[in-house]
Queue: 3 jobs
Job 1
Amino acid sequence: MKYVVKMDYCTMAFTPGTCSLQALSNCLAGDTDLHWMQIYNSEKSPYHSPLGLYYNDQCGSVENPHVARISGVGCEHFRTTLPILYDRLQTGGDQAHITRLDFCFDIVMTKSAWRMFLSQCFAHQLETMDTRKAKRYVVHADGDASTVYIGARSSDRYFRIYNKTLEDPQYQLRDADSGSPVSVPEDSYVIRYEVELKRKTRSLRGKKCTLDLKPFFESYFADGKLLCDELRKIWLSFGNDITLPPEFADSEIVTDIQNYNISVAGGYRTPMHEILYANIAAKYHEYPHEFESKLSYAADKYGKYIPYILQNKELFRRCLARAYSEYGWDIPIYIEIGGCNKLDDELEPDELFPCSVPEYENIDIFKERGLPDARSTPW
C-alpha cells in the first residue's frame, strides 16, 4: 500500500521589509492578477485572494510583522512556486520562520466502514477522557460529516480525520501510481488524514525545544524522506489500533512532489519560473476558488432560508447586525427585488432589532438545533 502525502496549509512569518503584497504575488504567480481584496474598510485590513491566500502586512509582531498564509486551495494553485516564496523568507535569517504546516493523505472508505470508524473513535473518547495516559480524542458529531480530532489544539502536533467527500464535493481523488483522477464508488467516501504542525516551544526531558518547520518544508520539495519518516512516526505515536489503516506502519509513504514528478521552482530565479507562472495563469479557472466555494456551500446548506430573510426588512437587518457584530462584515449591501430596494435606508450595524416575523419560528434550522422558540433566540 502506498500513501501519497501533500502539503495542505502553510503560514510564513517574514522579518521587517522582506515581503510586501507585491513581492508575495510576484513570487507565487509572476504578473498574474491574484484578485486581492480587503474585507474591512480599513487601511490595516488584511488582504485576501480567492485563490486561497492571506496576507497581513502588520500583524502586531515587531520581529515578524508580515504574515502570509497559503490555504489548501492556495497550495493547489501555487505548489510549484512556493519554494520561490520560501527563498524570500530565508532572506530574513533565522528570525524568519514557518509557523504552521499541514500535511495530509487520503484513503477510500465505504460508508458503513466510516460510520463504524466514527463509533469506535467516539467509544475511545469516552474511555480515555479522564486519563492523560492517552492522546485526547474528540469527535465533533455531524453525521457522516463528523470530524475526529486527536491531541491538544495548543500542541505542536494536532491531528484531524474527516470526510473530504462531504467537505468538498468537487474534490477529485488521484490514483496513487499514475496520478490520474479516480472515480469513488457511490457507497464510499474519500477520508482525509491530516496533521497540523506548529512552531511551538515545549519542554522535553527538562529542556525547552522549539519545533522548527523549515526542514519539513525543504524535505517536502526535495526527496521527501525526512518528512515522510517524521509523519509516519508522529502518526504512530498515539497508536494505530483505532485510527490508522492496519497496514499503515509498513506501508510506503511518499510526497506528491516525488510520486507524480511535479516540477517545482529551484533556486530564486531560473528560466523555469516563467514556465511555472504561465502554467498557473493558464490553470487559473481549473481550481475551485476558496471564497466562491464557501459561498456555494452556504447557498447549498442555507439557501432555503433566504426567502424568509428577504421577505422582511426587519429580519434582514437583524442578520446584517449579527454579521457586523461577530464577523466585522461592514460591506454595503443593496438588494433589489421587483424594482424595489429591500434596504432603502441606512443600517445602524450595532443595533439589534427585535424580531416579530411569524414565519421566523418555522425555519427548519432552529428545529435542527433543538431551539424550541426561535423568536427568543439571540442572533
Job 2
Amino acid sequence: MTHDTEIVKKTVEFKEHFLSLNDKGQDSALNILRALEFAQSVMCEPVDTNPRQNTCLHN
C-alpha cells in the first residue's frame, strides 16, 4: 500500500469519527489536535520549511 493511500484511509477514518461527535466533542477533539501539534512542534526540529514534515512521530 502506498503512503498516499494510507493517508487517504486515515483521513476518511478521521472524518467519520469526527463527524460522529456532537459539537462539544468536536471542539474537544480540535483542542486535543492543536495541543498535539504544538507539542510536536516544540519537541521536533522541522526537516525543511514545511513544519508538518519532521523527524518525530513519523511512521
Job 3
Amino acid sequence: MVDLELLKAIEEMMDRKLDPVNQRLDRVEQELCEVKEGLSEVRTGVNTLLEWADEVGGAIAFPIPKMNL
C-alpha cells in the first residue's frame, strides 16, 4: 500500500511540475493555428497577384516575367 501511495504522490507532483509546460504548449499550438491562417491569406493574395500579372503582362510594353513557384 505504501508503494501505491508513493506513486500517487509522485504522479501529483509531476502533474504540478508539468502544468506550466502544458500551458505554454497550448499557447504555442494556438499561435501556430493563427500563423497557418495568416499564411493561407497571404498565399491567396500572392496567387491573385500572379494571376493578375499574367493577364496584364501582355497588355503593357514591359512584360512582367513569369514566376515559377
